[in-house]
Amino acid sequence: MRIACVHQGYELYGSDRSFAESVAALRAAFPAAEIEVVLPREGPIVEILKPHASRIVFEPLWVLRRQAMLRLATVEMARLPAALWRAWRRMRGSDLTYINTSIIADYALAARLLPRKALLHIHEIPEGILRKVLVAMMRWSRADLIFNSRATRATFGDPPAIDAKGRRTHVVYNGVAGPAAALPMTYDGNRPLKILLLGRVNRIKGQEVLLEAVASLPTELRDRVEVRLVGGAFESVEREKALAELVGSMGLTGHVEVLPFVSDPTDHYRWADIVAVPSRRPESLGRVAIEAMGWGRPPLVSAIGGLVEVVADGETGWHVPPGNAAALAAKLGEIILRPDLWRGFAAAGRARYEAVFSEHIAAAAIVAIVADKLKAATPRQGRAHIAREAETSP
Predict the structure, then answer these.
(1) Which CATH fold would you assign to the domain 193-355?
(2) What is the pLDDT of residue 381?
C-alpha cells in the first residue's frame, strides 16, 4: 500500500503539528504501508515526521497565500503545468493521497482526475478573493473532504455529508497531544497574573490587541500583569522587530516579553496562569486554546470562528469580541481581581480536552475515514487486509 501525504508547511505551528499527528496515526494504523511525505522545503517539522515516514521528499508546491496571489497569477503561472504533472503522477502511483490544507493548488486541481484517491483536509477560514478561489478549487477537486471545525465547513459552503457525485464530507476536530494531567492552578490574586500569547506574528493573531488592552488597564492593575508574546513571523524579521518596538512605544517594557518561536512550548505553558488567543480574524479551530485546556490553563479567546467551538464561555475559559481591546481589558481586570470566579475552569477545560480534542480521538476518526476510502478504491481482494489493519491499530 502506498500513501502520499502532502503539506504546504515546514515549521511547527498548528497546521504543521496536526499534519504530523495525522501521519503518525496513519503509520500506526497501516504499519506495512509505504508512506511518502511531500514538503516544500526542510524545516523543524522534519524531525517529528521521520519516525513515521518511509521517505520525505522536498519539492516546490504551488501554494496559494494571500500575500503571494499577484505573483502566483503572473510570473509563477509558468510553474503550474509542471506542478500539476508532478501531483498527478504521484497520485496515480499511490493508493491514497492525503492533502493537508486547501491552499495546495497543484494537488487540489490534479485531484479532479483521480478523485477516488484524494482526501483533502481543510484547516483554513479564508476571506475575500482567496475564499472564492479555494471554494472553487474544493468543488473542482471532487475529493473527499475533512474539515477541522463546523466553522471551517460553513466557510466552504456547508457541503453535504454525501453529494450527488458520491463525495463524502467529514468534520474532525484536530487532536492535540498534551501532558498526562493538567497542572495545578496557583494564581490567587496575590502576585501578578501571567498571560501567555503563543502564535505566529501576523495580522490575524491579535498581539497588538492584547498590548492595547494591557496598556489601557489602570496602573494598579497593569502592575499586576506579566505577558509573554511567543512566536515568529513567517519569513518576516521586520514584523518581529515592529512588535518589539510596539511594546516599547506603549510603555510596556517592564510588563511584556517578546520571545522567539520554540518547537516545544512546554516551559511557557508551565509559566502561564491563562492563555490569550485574541485573534482579530476567524481561526479555523484554535490549537493553542486546546493545548491550554490540556495543560489546565484557561484560554481567553476571541468569540470568532472555531474558537467558540473549542472554549465554553464561563466554564472552561472566556469569550471576548474580536479586535475589542476595551472588552479584553475589562475581562482581564475581572480575572485579576476575582480568581475565585474561575477556580474550576482548569479542571473543566481538561475534561473537555480529554473528551473532545485528545490526540487518540482525532487519530481514530482520521484512520476510519482513510480506511473507508482505501477500501472503496482498492480491488476486492485487498479490502479485507485494509480492514484488518485499521481494526487492530492502536
Answers:
(1) Rossmann fold (3.40.50)
(2) 44
